[in-house]
Amino acid sequence: MNDETRHPKKARPRPAAPSGGPRADRLEWFTRNGHDIDHWHGEPLLLGGPRAREDATIDDILAAFAPGQRGRVKKSIAACLRDGTPGDVDLTIATGPLEGAPMRFSVSREPTRDGPTPRLRCTLRLAPPDSCAGRAMIAGCIADGGVDNTLLDRLLDAVPNAIAVYDNEDRLIYFNRQYRRLYDRAAPAIRIGDRYEKILRYAVEHGQYADLDPADHRLCAFWIAKRMEMRRSGMIGALVQKLASGRWVQVHENKMQNGHTVFICTDITDLKKTETLIRKQAESDSLTGLLNRPAFFAACRSRLRQRRRGDAVGCLILIDLDMFKSINDTMGHQAGDTMLRTIAERTRATLRDEDLSARLGGDEFAAFLSLEKAEQAEQVVRKLHAALTGRLTLSGRIMYPHLSIGYVTTREEEDIDSLYHKADAALSEAKNHGRNTWQNYDLDMQKRQERENYIVQSLRESLATEAFHFKLQPLRALDGGRHVGFEVLARWRHDNGSIPPTEFIPVAENAGLIMEISRRVFIQTFEW
Q1: Do residues 76 and 89 make contact, with C-beta atoms less than 8 angstroms apart?
Q2: β-pairing, 397-399 with 392-394?
Q3: Residues 439/427, Cβ–Cβ less than 8 Å
Q4: How far is residue 9's CA from residue 3's CA, in Å, rounded to a whole number?
């Protein structure tokens, strides 16, 4: 791309930079005593030109900066001369056409073959405009024409950011090379004089943005209209885009006093990758790589909200390894971990990519699926059980894992906590039926659960109102029938009639209320 295309107002031929030569955004020199310069190369216009003459000293170069900053640079050079410590100093140009521009000074020691005195490499480079001050400086230079166009082009082509300027009629008047490279699918439409909306529309139609399908014309038209409305209202500021190339870009729009808009686009792909890695580590089980409990429940809530807008059936599956503790006790925790990883791998391999799978903790796993019909759930569970109980080798021993599965399906607007409670009840039922099987949460189980919930609530109320009473049943010896004591029998006076101990005692045990009932038995017995 030539200068006439990118900057037509003051276009001049650009001198070609030698291959592998110095970059336009830096000035570099070498010194042995920290004062005199052996030789230098780079862009002398960075500091106003004359200061970088052939016989210049470091004091000449540092004259472009404030006195306090000069002292910091000299201290850094002295430390590197003394003990080889490399240094970096952030600076701001105090004079010349780039006044206010952020720069960074770096110094390091270089090994030499032509003498015992070490040589220092000193570099001044224009800082990338990823700070507010840097963006303001670049925007001001472009919009106000404060720097010669040839130098400006060389500087802005050297920075890693993509930069473009639109005038007060929203026509493109400047862009650097990175702008076309970053927005590669829109590159044919990026031309001086074209309006922003035309370029944006071309980009959308040619799949520039990863989150937009060009075939979805209604969504694309809505997205473009919303984007243009935000620009007209001045609500943009900064936004993040994911491009079709897989790159992530943070876009800053700076509105200048003369009406021009400066776009500065920063590639934040590495930052996004780091965020993704951190999020994955926070949401994943460290042993198996599956989702952990909080992440799984959050993802299920999201799926359930989406399902309510369609006709899909939600299916929650809970998996529990039978007698897993014996594996840890007899073969060691390493063998147990191997089994857990194997179960996780088989679960992933059996389910679809869009299904959710998790390790909830210990030997408990879970999965959430969206199905077309509720009848498909048992087919999936049957297939999953067969895959998970297949042969495996632990510490040289052939084993066949045993596990119980409880699952529930729903078309209703239920939350994940309710579904988990039902699937857990089905899992308990599977264990009560001999383990190593599966059980669906059905209507009969729902009735039993509702009955148990009712009894638990009534037990709590009755304990508070002293609704329990106790009877003494004599105990006699088999040899001769002599009286040997009493058996204390708990009875429950309920509003709807007497509930037998055979029904409420097991419920009280499961609900953690049996100790309080036993305490009442002892107290009343001693009172007698």
Answers
A1: yes
A2: antiparallel
A3: yes
A4: 10
How far is residue 174's CA from residue 85's CA, in Å, rounded to a whole number? Answer: 42
What CA–CA distance (Å, rounded) separates 461 from 21? Answer: 86
Give me the amino acid identity at 348. Answer: R
Nearest 10 degrees: Cα torsion 282, 288, 289, 293 = -50
Among 276, 303, 286, 307, CA closest to 361? 286
As beta bridge partners, residue 265 has: 162, 251
β-bridge partners, 87: 107
Helices (H), 361-500: 376-388, 416-432, 443-465
Q: Is 470 helix (H, G, I), strand (E, B) or coil?
A: strand
**Residues comprising the chain, all counted:** 528
The mean pLDDT of the chain is 81
Mean pLDDT of the region 405-430: 89
Q: What does 335-354 look like in DSSP terms, one character per residue?
A: HHHHHHHHHHHHHHHHS-TT
Strands of 160-247, DSSP E = 162-166, 172-175, 238-242
**CA distance linking residue 49 with residue 44, whole number of Å:** 5
Residue 229 CA to residue 68 CA, distance in Å, equals: 47
- Which value, in Å, is the radius of gyration of the alpha carbons in the chain? 38
How is residue 475 written in tokens?
């105990």
Report how far residue 303's alpha carbon sits from residue 316's, in angstroms, rounded to the nearest whole number: 11
Per the CB < 8 A criterion, the answer to whether 442 and 461 are in contact is no
Give pLDDT tens digits for 157-206: 777 889 999 988 899 988 988 999 999 999 999 999 999 999 999 999 99
Query: What whole-number distance in Å separates Cα of residue 204 and Cα of residue 128?
Result: 28
Of 247, 252, 251, 236, nearest in space to 272 by CA: 247
pTM: 0.53
What distance in Å separates the CA atoms of residue 78 and residue 70, rounded to the nearest whole number?
12
**Alpha carbon distance 23, 336 (integer Å):** 58
For residue 495, the number of C-alpha atoms closer than 13 Å in the C-beta half-sphere is 7
What pLDDT is attached to residue 24? 53
Give the C-alpha distances (Å, rounded to integers) separating 318 from 291, 298, 361, 407.
14, 16, 12, 6
190: which 2 tokens? 């990026």
